[in-house]
Design a protein that fits this description.
Blueprint (H helix, E strand, L loop, with lengths): L2 E5 L2 E3 L5 E8 L8 E6 L6 E6 L9 E3 L7 E6 L4 E6 L8 E7 L16 E2 L3 E5 L2
Parallel strand pairs: 2-11
Antiparallel strand pairs: 1-3, 3-8, 4-5, 4-9, 5-6, 7-8, 9-10, 9-11
Amino acid sequence: QVQLVESGGGLVQPGGSLRLSCAASGFSLDAFAIGWFRQAPAREREGIACISSSDGNTTYATYTDSVKGRFTISRDNAKNTVYLQMTSLNPEDTAVYYCATDPEIVDCRYYFHRYLEVWGQGTLVTVSS
């Protein structure tokens, strides 16, 4: 069974850091691009970071403007896990964070606007003092 499971969410103070994990089972993450998305209360879901496939190609990452310089997406192929390191968090980062992938997509072009077949259940990040 193809599955993504996020973890690492929680309550953090403004200015703090958090690392989210997205563990895959049933397939190898390195063969596909994978992205992080988030949905804040009463707001639409937005794509925030994508990392391309590392299967025979140069891996690259893309970010939405609101997280550039603060968030870093990375993958550990040995653990079949993708991470989202988040720093300088502010209350506007409060949201449920999801990872998603699709077995037909290996690059990050237009990733945030494409149909993605596999989604995790989400992990809640709350930034508050």
